[in-house]
Amino acid sequence: MSPEEKLVCGLEEMGLDLDPATQSRLLSYVELIQKWNQVYNLTAVRDPQKMVTQHLLDSLAVLPHIDGCRIIDVGTGPGLPGIPLALANPSLEVTLLDSNHKKTSFLRQACLELGLKNTTVVCERVEAWRPEEKYDVVISRAFSDLAEFVGLALHLCSNTGLMLAMKGVYPYEELTRLPATVVLQGVEPLKVPSLDAERHLVLLRPIKMEAMG
Ligand SMILES: C[S@@+](CC[C@H](N)C(=O)[O-])C[C@H]1O[C@@H](n2cnc3c(N)ncnc32)[C@H](O)[C@@H]1O
């Protein structure tokens, strides 16, 4: 099956109706990762078909859980999940943050070549980044354990926002070490077409400072 067919079948299975132009931009993004991977080592996944499953469909599986329009992807690497989300939903304003200069050089070029108007690339350590406005959604994939994610990135989340952590197997042990600054809203199993592995999305709600006394 070609990467194109894999994407079309996957989107159908997920019930995501993306127009042909968006599908084509998602595939162009995979091609860009492939091209830059030869020099910048952006991802260990090298096969385009596997990139469709493990990067595109995996990222898009969280789309139904994105509530609000200002979103920051912390430790985005080559733009995952931020770029597929920005491509799939142009009404999102997506900040792509990573501390690695090579990754952010790639991100700037990728956003330019893909004609993305709803992304901002930031090269900073997350704990040092102080934006003017907080975010509705702070998301990460393969970034850190839950406690560290909250410790490093909670200051970016608005009082009414959500922190979303993309995980593999149900993170029982990590959940026992959640800091008291957040409350667990839920852990949603995610179905990624053609992926023979478990995926979960952890939803964390910040505890308002005034509620803490
Ligand atoms: C394993 S990669 C995951 C990349 C991407 N989210 C994915 O799912 O493929 C983790 C990324 O986090 C970045 N990172 C690590 N610590 C960071 C920090 N304190 N602030 C910002 N980025 C950080 C690294 O540069 C790296 O690109």
From TrEMBL:
A GO term from the CC aspect: cytosol
Keywords from the UniProt entry: Cytoplasm, Methyltransferase, rRNA processing, S-adenosyl-L-methionine, Transferase
Alphabetical list of Gene3D superfamilies matching this protein: Vaccinia Virus protein VP39
Keyword Cell membrane: no
SUPFAM superfamilies tied to this protein: S-adenosyl-L-methionine-dependent methyltransferases (SSF53335)
Catalytic activity, reaction form: guanosine(527) in 16S rRNA + S-adenosyl-L-methionine = N(7)-methylguanosine(527) in 16S rRNA + S-adenosyl-L-homocysteine
Alphabetized GO MF terms: rRNA (guanine-N7-)-methyltransferase activity
InterPro entries the UniProt entry points to: rRNA_ssu_MeTfrase_G (IPR003682), SAM-dependent_MTases_sf (IPR029063)
Top-rank lineage group of the source organism: Bacteria
Keyword Cell membrane (UniProt): no
Compartment annotation: Cytoplasm
EC number: 2.1.1.170
Residues engaged in binding S-adenosyl-L-methionine: G75, L80, V126, E127, R141
Alphabetical list of NCBIfam families matching this protein: rsmG_gidB (TIGR00138)
Main function: Specifically methylates the N7 position of guanine in position 527 of 16S rRNA.
Similarity remark: Belongs to the methyltransferase superfamily. RNA methyltransferase RsmG family.
Name of the protein: Ribosomal RNA small subunit methyltransferase G
Biological source species: Sulfuricella denitrificans (strain DSM 22764 / NBRC 105220 / skB26)
Classification lineage: Bacteria, Pseudomonadati, Pseudomonadota, Betaproteobacteria, Nitrosomonadales
